Amino acid sequence: MAKVFQFFNDCIKELKLVAWPERDNVFASVKVVIISTFAIAVVLGLLDFCFTEIFRFLMK
Q: What is the longest distance spanned by two Cα atoms in the chain?
């Protein structure tokens, strides 16, 4: 049981040494992820639409 407590104490010590990002950096990163995800979704949606229409045209 002593090893378990030692493990958690070591975890707490290590977490105190972590260089946590500042709030502004986190929000900037989140914005980049959201905008990138939206842009990729739009591009993939357009490609899907185009390929669907091409396929429909070829099947007529």
A: 74
User: Phi and psi of 19, rounded to 5°?
Assistant: -90, 95
29 Cβ contact list (under 8 Å, min separation 6): 21
- pTM summary value: 0.65
- pLDDT digit string (tens) for the chain, length 60 residues: 889 999 999 999 999 999 999 999 999 999 999 999 999 999 999 999 999 999 999 998
SS3 category, 21:
coil
Q: What does each C-alpha distance from 38 to 7, 13, 48 come to in angstroms?
A: 42, 39, 15
